[in-house]
Amino acid sequence: METELLPMIAAERRRTADLIDSLTPAQLDTPSLCRAWTVREVAGHLASPLVGTPWRLLPLLVGAGFRPHLANARLARQVARRPPAELAAALREHADHRFRLPVVGWPGQLTGLQVHGQDMRRPLGLPADLDPERLRISLDFLTGGRAVGFVDRRRVAGLRVEATDLGWSAGDGPVVRGTGAALLLALTGRRVALADLTGDGVARLAAR
Q1: pTM for the model
Q2: What are the CA-CA distances from residue 144 to residues 45, 78, 80, 89, 208 (Å)?
Q3: Contact 89, 51 (CB under 8 A)
Q4: Which terminus of the chain has fewer CB atoms gathered within 10 Å of its CB, N or C?
Q5: What does pLDDT average to over the chain?
C-alpha cells in the first residue's frame, strides 16, 4: 500500500534537513542540477508544502498566468529567502506530514525528495548515499508509465534499464546500465548523469 511509503518520505525529509544544516552559505548559493535553482532554492521548494497555507500559491498562480510550474518556481524562491535553519526545521518538524502530490501521489513525493536531494548533493561533490529500498521504489515508479511530470513515457520506451548496484532492471530493448543513483538522475532529465551510464541504449536515451 502507498501508505507504507510515508515513513520513507519522512526519513528523506529528515535527511534533507540534516543536509541543509550542514551547508555553508557558499554551498547553499551553488547552482543545483535543477534548472536555474540554487541549492538554497531547491531546499525552499522541498519545504514549501510544509510551511504556510495552500492559499498562498493562489496569487502566485494568477501572476504566473495559471502556469503551475512557474508558480511553484516562484514559491520556491520566495520560501528560500527564509533562514536555512528555518527550512531545515520545517522539514524536520513536519517530516510526517501527509502532503500528497496530485496524480503521482506518495511515490512521486518520495521520488521528488530523492531526486532533489541529488540536485543539491552532486554539484557540491557530496555522495548520493541513497537508501536501496527507497531507490528501487523510485526506479519502479519512473519506469512504470505513471510518473507524470517526472518522465515522458517515450524517454524509456523500448529500453532495458539496469541498476548495477541494486540487482534491479526494467523494460526490454537496448540496455542502459549504471548505478541506481545515476539512473534516477538520467531518467528525470539530468543530462550530467549520462556520462555515468553504459550500454547500447545510452545514445538513444541521450537523444530523447
Answers
A1: 0.90
A2: 25, 34, 33, 34, 18
A3: no
A4: N
A5: 91
